[in-house]
Amino acid sequence: MTDSVLIIDALSAGTGHRTSSRDSIGCGPRTIAGVFELHNFSCNISRIEEVLTKKGAARGFEHLAISAMSMDLPVVKQATKMWRRTRPKGKVLLGGPIAAAPRTILSEIRPDVLILGEGEATLEHLIKSDFFETSIDLSEIPGIAFTHHSDVIITPKRPTISEEHLSDYFQPSTIRIMDYPGYQASRVYVEVLRGCSNFQRTKIRLPDGRSCTDCGSCDSIDPSTRLDCPEDIPPGCGFCSVPTTWGAPRSRSEAAIVREIQSLLDLEVHRIVLEAPGFLDYQRGPYPLTTPCSPSANIEAVSSLLSKIKSLPQMQDGTAHLSIENIKACLFTESVAETFSRFLPGNTPNIGMESGSESHARAIGKCSSPQDVLKAVRIAKKHNLDPFVYLIYGLPGEDFLTIKKSIEMVEELTDIGVERIILYGFRPLPGSAFADFEPPLHDSPMITKLKKAVRTANRDRKFTYLGRVIKSIAAEPSKTHSGYTMFYPLQEGPLITAQGGYSAGTLVNIEITEVLSDGLVRGEVVK
Ligand code: SF4
Asked: Which one of 156, 213, 319, 458 is CB 3.0 to 4.6 Å from 518, fit for a cystine?
């Protein structure tokens, strides 16, 4: 074994404490670990909170590789400072969505190398160039940024990795899942495809004056024509950087996905989430697929994948659960819903609406309209699925009327029986079309009204759980009530607190007895 690397998972740690999705384990850090394992490096993964709070958590490692998002800048700064104090010679690598603003990150964090976009091939190139052993001429390595004296050097973009290489050569580590405390109770993400087919673009004038001149490329039937915009407007929904960073969709092979899931289940993972910006882009067409709503979903490929996964022993005996999240409403047809409910009864497809206003949704570059979303939610309910819908406030182009429409949509979605509405504030993401817009400083009265409507809708929905017995998995001790344990439903549903001490991964049945908030219920463990 040569060098040892500590891989830090800082994803959504923000200032140091993950408040939402505490039970999520993204696939990024395991993907990086897979490259190190491929080249016989010893490596471990640690949550950044662990490294910052547990003395000696970084002991014994020579190098650091951090995976983070833009919002995690504060905590990444803290961790690299701490590392540099004790290991000035060790190499510090930084990658993930945070790398979309290289100049800012290089001046703020000063890593040895910032990996831009997808990391596997670039990391392998660094390893093969003895980057960890000695100082090398980094300008020869595509897909990175670094500082040389006081200059920022950004090397040429690396071509994207082929579907074959993503499937048969680069394989995310599975053994490193055991580095995550409580992984048995966590939602473990397994990448199905990378990239997004939404190559429409925003029609909103950008702060630097760029705006659509209606050249027609975004509506072209020729997929390659949609790749470029003469006004240099990034593709996709204006608030999202996925098409810019990862390009058009590339699907992993069914065999690679099933192999990875089998290994994870054998390591006592109980909750698997199929990771994709848009799951229904899976094997939906030849590369580049840049038409988000046609052709329709590849039902045959989706069914084959789901049936293979569901035939795995742990899925068969009910000790493990499979779920799918992100789907585009415009692709969510009756036959898709029928397929989901056959293999994933009670699944919670996540559907992005973002704005309730038809014109605003179009202006921000959405490929599905609010009416498409309502239709998709109705279809999902008809097939006993429990859809989540996403809304964003503070988006460019938002006004009194667009928020009013969003509030009306909350009421309509509640009437249809939507399982949960997830509302979050607009954040300008580097690499997205809206990167230079400022989020609103204060909540307008209409935004306050929207937040209240969503909270009430989500809280009221929790009352449908009262009296139900839910198969649940223990996660961690309650931080607010001693003697209580926090549980997640093995299938879908709200966070649960129940009396008693249970170790992470313990499966129990819980009868729901009380609604505590729009995201939390109390229950009693039933034998
Ligand atoms: S490619 Fe650019 S200019 Fe052309 S229609 Fe799309 S956004 Fe407008």
From this structure: 458
